[in-house]
Amino acid sequence: MMRKLKITELNRMSVKEFKESDKLPLIVVLDDVRSLHNVGSVFRSADAFRVESIYLCGITAVPPQPEIHKTALGAENTVEWKYFKDTLEAVRELKEKGYMIYSVEQVEGSTLLNKLTLDENGKYAVILGNEVKGVKQEAVDASDGCIEIPQFGTKHSLNVSVTAGMVIWEFARLLMKL
Fold first, then answer.
1. pLDDT digit string (tens) for 145-175?
2. Residue 54 pairs with which residues in a beta bridge?
3. N or C: which end of the chain has fewer CB within 10 A?
4. Superfamily of segment(s) 16-175
5. pLDDT tens-digit profile of 46-70?
6. First CA to last CA across the chain, in angstroms?
7. Cα gap 126→121, rounded to integer Å
8. How far apart are CA 83 and CA 90, in angstroms?
9. Burial status of residue 91 (CB atoms within 10 A of its CB: 0-12, 13-18, 19 or more)
10. What residues are paired with 178 via a beta bridge?
11. What is residue 134's DSSP assignment?
12. Spacing of C-alpha 31 from chain mean position
């Protein structure tokens, strides 16, 4: 029989320890994500893998918001974030700081997530788009490449927060050698 661990047995870091810890060299950019629950869920996944920061762009809501907190469960207080009125402004800043930028979008010539290779010394950003329209074409055009998650069912997309979790996990797996 397997006993579920109690929260006190998980030995999670404190907020202070999290803030001072080394981070995964990944910034998640949310391009006009309209659901506050999706935003909160991305914060929670970003906390789980110590993502460097989240850039909230356009109509994407910013903390503090009860709907963000409902799914973030406090991760909006641990993960650094910054707001940009325009996603391209965020992309320009990332390029100036030497980040390799990927849009997560279905495009001609995209790299399948399971075929992605990364430089362990690199710094990365991933742009995740609006729940209906995806990543804006201008942001795709400004990216260094695009990542696509292979899918085998009848639907052509995944929820943005599910996508974020999968992509963040893959970057953590590759960069942290998990």
1. 999 999 999 999 999 999 999 999 999 999 9
2. 28, 81
3. N
4. SPOUT methyltransferase, trefoil knot domain (3.40.1280.10)
5. 999 999 999 999 999 999 999 999 9
6. 27
7. 16
8. 9
9. buried
10. none
11. B
12. 11
Short-list 85, 145, 84, CA closest to 110: 145
Supply 69's token pair: 């907190």
Checking if the pLDDT of 135 tops 90, the result is yes
pLDDT at site 177: 82
Q: How far is CA 31 from CA 6, 8, 118, 129, 131, in A?
A: 37, 36, 23, 5, 10
pLDDT in tens, 3-22: 999 999 999 999 999 999 99
Residue from 26, 70, 31 nearest 49 by CA? 26
pLDDT, average across residues 93-106: 98
Residue type, 145: G
Tokens representing 46?
């970003």
CB-count exposure of residue 86 (10 Å: 0-12, 13-18, 19+): middle
